[in-house]
Design a protein that fits this description.
The protein contains three helices and four strands. The protein has 82 residues and is of the alpha+beta class.
Length: 82
């Protein structure tokens, strides 16, 4: 079970909206880091994902392990938040 979900987004990212819509439909909550509003956190997103793209979804599990999903990838996102 997901203990905490953080999504790195930008204002113009359509896939970011889709990830948030998917999680909202599942009744989940998340913390959002908007990189347009918090550009000082871009290095953090890059370090986590290894890619300069959004969304970057970080799912922290009950055992404190983390899974990082880059983009709108339901094949990885769905089991990560289950």
């Amino acid at each position: 079970m997901a203990k905490n979900i953080t999504i790195f987004t930008t204002n113009t990212c359509g896939y970011c909206h889709m990830v948030k819509k998917y999680l909202g439909a599942k009744g989940m909550t998340w913390d959002e880091v908007n990189l347009d509003e918090q550009p000082h956190r871009q290095a953090e997103a890059l370090q986590l994902s290894g890619a300069m793209t959004v969304p970057v979804t970080v799912v922290t599990k009950d055992d404190d392990s983390q899974e990082v999903i880059v983009g709108y990838n339901l094949a990885k996102l769905a089991p990560a938040v289950a």
